[in-house]
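Q: Hi! First time asking for a complex rather than a single chain. Here are the components, and I think there are three in total. Is that enough to go on?
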Amino acid sequence: MRLSITVNGQAHADDVEPRMLLAHYLRDVCGLKGTNIGCDTTSCGACTVHVDGESVKSCTVLAVQSDGADVTTVEGLAATRSGPNGMHPVQAAFQAEHGLQCGFCTPGMVMATAGLLAENPKPTEREVREALEGNLCRCTGYHNIVRAALTAAETMAASE
Amino acid sequence: MIPASFDYVLAGSLDDAVTLLAEHGDDAKLIAGGHSLLPMMKLRLAFPTVLIDIRKVPGAAYVRVDGDAVAIGALTRHCDLVASDVLRAEAPLIAMAAGFVGDPQIRHRGTIGGSLSHADPAADLPAAVLASDAVLVALGQDGHREIPVADFFAGYFETALAPGEVLTEIRVPRTGPKGYHYEKFVRRANDWAIVAVATVAGRVALANMAATPVRAAATEAALASGASAAEAAALAAEGTQPVQDMHADQEYRKHLARVLTRRGLIAAGVA
Amino acid sequence: MTAINLPRGSILGTRVQRLEDPEFLTSGAVYTDDIVDERLTGAVWVTFVRATLAHATITSIDTRAALATEGCVGVITAADLADLPAQAPMMPLYPTGMAQPLLATGTVRYVGEPVAAVLTDSRYTGEDIAELVNIDYEPLPVVVDPVEAATDETLLFPELGTNVVCAKPLAADDDIFAGCEVVVTATIQNQRVAVAPMEVRAAAAIWGADDRLTAWVPNQGAQGAQARLARMLGLPVAQVRIITPAVGGAFGAKVGADPEAAVVGWIARHVGRPARWVETRSENMIAMTHGRAQVQSVTIGGDRDGRVRAYRLHVLQDSGAYPRFGAMLPTLTLLMAPGVYDIDRLQLSYESVATNTTPVGAYRGAGRPEATAAIERAMDLFAAEIGLDPAVVRRRNLLAPFTEPITSKGGAAYDSGDYVMALDTVLAAAGYEQLRREQAIRRERGDAVQLGIGVSVYVEITGGGGEAGASKENATVQVHPDGTATILTGTSPHGQGHATVWAMLASEELGIPIERITVRWGDTDLVPEGGGTGGSRSLQQGGAAVRQAARELVDVARERAADRLEVSPDDLEIDYTNAGLVVRGVPGAGVTFAELAADEPLLVRSVFRAPGATYPFGAHVAVAEVDVETGRAELTRLIALDDAGVVVNPLIAEGQRHGGLAQGAAQALLEEVRYDEDGNPTTSTFADYPIVSATEVPSFELVTTETPTTYNPLGAKGIGEAGSIGSTPAVQSAVIDAVAHLGVRHIDMPTSSMRVWSAIRAANEGTEH
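A: Yes, that's all I need. Here is the structure of the assembled complex.
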């Protein structure tokens, strides 16, 4: 199947098997290895990317179903909004609050957080926790991830 | 994990999808958001050889008032149900239940038509649509037909849709913004319900208390004859034979059905 | 040069953000599945075919259909591995016949055991073709329950005549409970849990022109992985090189290397192509080692005034089908059995048995959380029996503060501790009295949602193992002519932030900014020796080694600078501003480390040796709300005091504690690996196995105290496992406490809503009859 897709602002056109998952397309065809795969059941969220501006789990999307879509991965996030140290404010907040340890859930967690803040710029702690319920982390106990999300919300509001 | 190989066809319209279904027969499956089907294909519990993609069919995702009902296009995503002002004003149970489906990423992708067609007895929207006494519209080669939701859920992951039929619309009676509630009991926030109760307009439907979502008939009858929420809820598990799994044995599920029904009714304003 | 040695703030003890984070956040770290390396060009993809029965004889393996399919490069079974030596058990203590073969030979003993490896041109065809390998089995009787396994009625290894892997029998001596006014007995499940790091297992391997195996394997210490892989493959250690990619979490389960990695290595050698393997989550849940899995029989006796006199613990350890580290866990559990308490008489025993389940290994805390869970539960049961507040009973039995090492009745040499301070401080921080008042009010009102408060006090072992099994670790510090520095370490971070903290430690000594210091690890060619990261050892040994090496580097530099500047070494002092040495009292007379390095390489390798393990301690208070109608428990607060000595980077130390707290709470509330009676796993995906998510835990309340150890110059003990040790019993206890007034004394973990509801109902029936 022919697939035309924009990834991080760059147009791609590739022939892919219909069964190829978007996550594998991004990783193996586009070479964007930041998007990780952590489970088989749409449970862990490590593969979260933005498709047409919304967070989705790319392990449960066929690449061919993203024909014509505009996809942003963790590698392209900083280009969508500038923040400290050349990172997106969400990425910078994850560093500032130590919201990552082993880093495996991090790209998905960052994309889910950015997606949350696009829809709800001033979430409460409870709203952050509920919005991240589909993203699993085994290292941080979520404490600093939640703080990072709240910090990012503040810095983004301040720079509006 | 990766699905077994299949052919992929993009449907241009729902009529087109019906034609394609007829053409490819039993081995073909419709896919929209794919969040019920793809996980099963990845675990190799489902092996369709043809996927007919209806996700981008124009004009099939909508929520609008249509006479006494709110008409919901089958391709409307969960997140759009949650955000719908029309639903909030006219059939808020559907919006509320949709907010409990999965997680934000799943709600960005999954559709009400997909959830209903998948017919997982533990899912949120089937129970909510059942409690709403909705009418489902299916399109087949002979055109449209209406299926009362009471006749729709035929068994465990089975519906009254004939092979080759496509669910196109869900017509939910307008109830106004009061008298409804969705009470879901879970282990973790994004898990499937251990038991859930949907109630609106004196009707009560239970999720995961049988092979299909079921109406709590004894409770509804009691309510109709003036029983209190507590009295009516005590009858909620009557006639059910729920599954036994690691989360709940039969007795516990029945207990939960009674407690959650009482809470749901009270939250819905039943005294 | 300008002003020197002005008073400066130390970087140590400050909240330095991680240097490694920008890469992790903007492009993602490079995990094994992410590696793009020309050496791996043309790699075959390896997919394992795993046992679908828990115990069975393999009667035939038919690979014809698989081999006939396009894209299939080959299928490997045990018969192909006949050139390898017989596998040795992981510990010399274990019976030889219980070692797991790399691929099953004749008999499978757990669902998920690797039976064959399918080699394909791509990942996608691997799953397709693996389904075509047809294995016929003759089922054998299955034993899943360790209690049943201990009877030896169903044997995993009939030729051995027993399922017992190792044991310490109960001493047949006197009745230790003689004279006790009150004796309480209970059987406590410390349930099997999945380690579930977010990154599953993987490997990539080549057999190089250098006639060596080079393998990329996620691990917790390249040198340990190298030794294990070499042993499994019958190769000299020198013929195996390990390169450690980024590792996506490990928690004890990535120590060494697993049989699958050895098969991938074998394939790279014998098929003549590089080989790659990444398991699926569904495989990981049944084939990576699990944790905990103990049945604990406790008896506690004492007086009605709250003084505990005697404690008996028997641990029945489920080892899984082939003993790994899990069979040894009880030795640590027994060592720490009395914990923080001064108990006169102990009676400790264990038995580790094989069952038809996934092998059990180390999981965050490995043996110590189990010890704490047992004694803390026993304390609660004792307190409930005599009707005293559980905090009061604990307070009455704590060991007195000590600054010199003492030997516990369990046989451990505790280095320093102040458990009374820990308990008092955490109770004050939690507002314990106020919580008890609120609890009383809710009980009085008969609220549907009741409040429970759980208290635990713990001490644990850290830094017990290490390089070559000793409490030591090496570090190399080198300053380059451009003024940057490199640190080589034998530790192996996978989230713990060594790249930042090791740089802080060297910067403190050398004055080189942390941004100019690179930390490297995990390549056995670069760092041939090392103890890796596990058992909360890294800072106290690896960090101490970095500091020692940096100081020795200054000494070397001082000698050279003295020659160069023609002064006495004693006249030189460190110029932290410019990263060099200056002549005391002579402004402008000095030389930088970089300048010295330009003349001759400036590096020092140093080995730090600790006198022994250290014993961090702490106290946790958990607050839970329990819906008594549905049994649903919610953790609303978790207040944790964890004292691991001197903290070098509070930001990172707190992160370690948070993670442990959540994992510990998850065991109490949610997580459990389950099998049906035929040994089929029923929790083999993340949809079925309830890994704790952000909605089930609160933000944590941390209280920090620092009781230094004298065992290393940093004064630091380990912090990696602390959170998971105190929190499990505190949270379990809080849930039970919430319904204690209804007559409930104990609920096994996980305290699922059905279990809580059933316990309330059983208590009601008990009072009615």
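A: Chain B touches chain A through 29 residues (CB under 8 Å). Let me know if you'd like any chain examined more closely.
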